[in-house]
Protein: tRNA (guanine-N(1)-)-methyltransferase
Organism: Microbacterium luteolum
Amino acid sequence: MRIDVLSIFPSYFDGLTLSLLGKARDAGILDLHVRDLRDWTSDRHRTVDDTPYGGGAGMVMKPEPWGLALDELAAAPSASADASRPTIIFPSPAGEVFTQATARELSSRQHLIFGCGRYEGIDERVFEYAADLGEVRLISLGDYVLNGGEVATMAMIEAIGRLIPGVVGNPESLVEESHEDGLLEYPSYTKPSSWRDRAVPDVLLSGNHAVIASWRRDQQLERTRRRRPDLLPEEDRSES
Ligand SMILES: Nc1c(O)cccc1[N+](=O)[O-]
């Protein structure tokens, strides 16, 4: 998979050279390029914003640098032999909500382009223009206000990247995680078996894998009912 990121703060993404994603980049599994949007400006001040038509506080990101950048990146060779159009993602509080299902869907794409907005947002015509270059998705991490798209992009790249085959050493570990089966994950324990007068649940020391699996499932349902009843079907939401 190829991922391009457009931002006026490219160093935000230095963390993507670390850990599993950094190793995946070194191994050629993930082809990730972070670019400074200002590289597509032509004035001395490398201007990317201007005042909003219609008035209002703040500044809006100009369309010209975005148009030039997206033209270039959308034409970049992606991992796949076929010249499939890229998926162009703009993190936005006005977007669809990002879930594990979204991460799984996007992890099978060949070329993702993330456009990180700043200020009061990006000129609307950029989203319209981008639709001529690829599939455009406005995606939100949640209903709160961030200063720009960079943090959301980091989160999405991690959630998507770890699902790409070969990135996580043991694919089994991807299965038993929160939200993978629609439920929150069960509690985990490791040595010592007793710590500050707190013991590991006996069932986990029993060696009876069927009983352990059943206990873990019960824990998932109980936690999900208590913390995230919205994830459960209506009929399963009340405490039994
Ligand atoms: N919430 C928010 C924002 O305020 C700005 C950019 C991106 C997001 N988001 O993805 O959730």
